[in-house]
Amino acid sequence: MTSSSRRYTIPGSDPARLVTSANPVGRRDFLRTGAAIASAAVSGVVGAAVPARAAESAAPWQKVPGTPAGAYGQPSEFEKSVTRHVIRAYPEIAPGVGSTLSPIQSFHGTITPSGLHFVRNHNGTPSIDPAQHRLLIHGLVKRPLMFTVAALSRYPTITRTYFIECAGNSGRNLAPQPQQISAGVLHGLISNTEWTGIPLSLLLEEAGLEPGAAWLLAEGADSASMSRSVPMEKALDDAMIALYQNGERLRPDQGYPVRLFLPGWEGNMNVKWLRRLKVTDGPTHTKDETSKYTDPLRDGKALQFTYEMGVKSVITQPSSGMKLDGYGFHEISGMAWSGAGRIRRVEVSTDGGTTWKDAALHGQQLSKSVVRFRFPWEWNGAPAVLQSRATDEKGNVQPARAVWLARYAVDARFHNNSIASWELGADGSVKNVYA
Ligand code: CO
Fold it and tell me: How far apart are the CA of 330 and the centre of ligand 1, in A?
């Protein structure tokens, strides 16, 4: 045995025996070796014992030349199961209406791969020729302006990492009974991306605002003419005309070639395929902000223009449908974000909210951006209810489910940022529960 292989041998276990989920005997041996080894597991030396002569035997793929690199990269063929969940609201009459949810239970960092970004479309993704597309700025401006995509691409750009979340995210967790579906199907209308574009304030300055300019109408070039009203204060603050995501041009599903981006605000406001910004003296009350995206309350009133997404977190590992493969060390991990700014704190409970402990925050902890939280945990085999609770820099705390339900009407569908719960059974299975 070489000295390098000895480094990875776990004392007290048979060196020929792999400690993997497929070999629970090996794992039990491993766990019996005590606290010193457990702390080694926490520090990352969890690997398998090395079989004798492992270093000398080549794997089959070492014996044949590999395939040449393709023109556009794809994930490993062994990751084919990591896909979005597609929901079509009216498959017969309007197949483009629906949502496509990110598989957040498979994500481990903070950035959402472009091909796994969630999609919410009101009548499908248009096929737009960027040479033909125009962005119009008109209304209460001194100089109405028309931009080609080529012209927009000449402006100075900024790059920021922001989450975007559909207002309807986690709406499925408002069903009367908890649904046994994955974390992504429950909570996957959230994605986190590096966006590059032009500060909207720059273009509005060039057009010149007239007195009384207080709102914008933002309209998309899809066949639903998706449109929303945007207060001028946001437009002049951190609003962006996005042209790129994760370094490449926007994906068609994300508004290619031009999308409005309003950091921290509900997904629907970030109008895709942006064709028009009309400066107005008040909100336009479009169909997309009157028939939808309003929030009925318990007292019979309804909230309109609820833009900012609330502070929120969800545990993605482990999560519903998964099964823990044994007692002992498990890292609890998930995503947290807030439309109000930075995430300051995420707490984790393993006893259904009776006690809470701080999780570690990873990633860059940017404003209006997803952070990854991680919490080391020794599972003793007893049933447990796992929860996470986020707090942002403004002091907003993610509400308990009962607190959220007491505020909104029974048919409310939007802005569910309440604490989610996973129940861990004695057999290691993880279920969605209401707690
Ligand atoms: Co809203």
Answer: 36
CA of 270 to the centre of ligand 1 (A): 12
Residues of the chain with pLDDT under 50: 1-44
SS3 track for 21-77: CCCHHHHHHHHHCCHHHHHHHHCCCCCCCCCCCCCCCCCHHHCCCCCCCCCCCCCCH
Distance of CA 297 from the midpoint of ligand 1 (Å)? 13
3-state secondary structure of 11: coil
**From ligand 1's centre to the CA of 220, what distance in Å?**
19
The share of the chain scoring above pLDDT 90, in percent, equals 84
3-state DSSP helix/strand/coil percent for the chain, to nearest 5? 15, 35, 50
Q: Domain map of the chain by residue range?
A: 6-49, 119-292, 312-433
CATH among 3.40.630.30, 3.50.30.60, 3.90.420.10, 3.40.50.2000 for 119-292: 3.90.420.10
pTM above 0.70, yes or no: yes
Q: How far is the CA of 165 from the centre of ligand 1 (A)?
A: 11
Q: Please, where are the H alpha helices in 158-264? A: 183-187, 200-207, 232-235
- CATH of the domain spanning 312-433: 2.60.40.650
Interval 106-143: pLDDT, tens: 999 999 999 999 999 999 999 999 999 999 999 999 99
CA of 66 to the centre of ligand 1 (A): 50
Among the listed residues 80, 86, 87, 88, the one whose alpha carbon sits nearest the alpha carbon of residue 106:
80
356/362 Cα distance (integer angstroms):
19
Ligand 1 center to 334 CA (angstroms): 24
- Chain segment 216-273, per-residue pLDDT in tens: 999 999 999 999 999 999 999 999 999 999 999 999 999 999 999 999 999 999 999 9
3-state secondary structure of 310: coil
How far is ligand 1, taken at its centre, from the CA of residue 268, in Å?
9
Distance 169 CA to ligand 1 centre (A): 11
How many angstroms separate the most distant Cα atoms in the chain?
Answer: 81
For residue 360 the two structure tokens come to: 């570690």
Q: Give residue 424 CA to ligand 1 midpoint distance, Å.
A: 33
The strand order across the sheet containing 430-433 reads: 357-358, 343-349, 384-392, 421-424, 430-433
Q: If you measure from the C-alpha of residue 293 to the centroid of ligand 1, how many angstroms do you get, rounded to a whole number? A: 5
Measure 99 CA to ligand 1 centroid, in angstroms: 17
Give the distance, in angstroms, between the CA of residue 216 and the centroid of all CA atoms in the same chain: 27
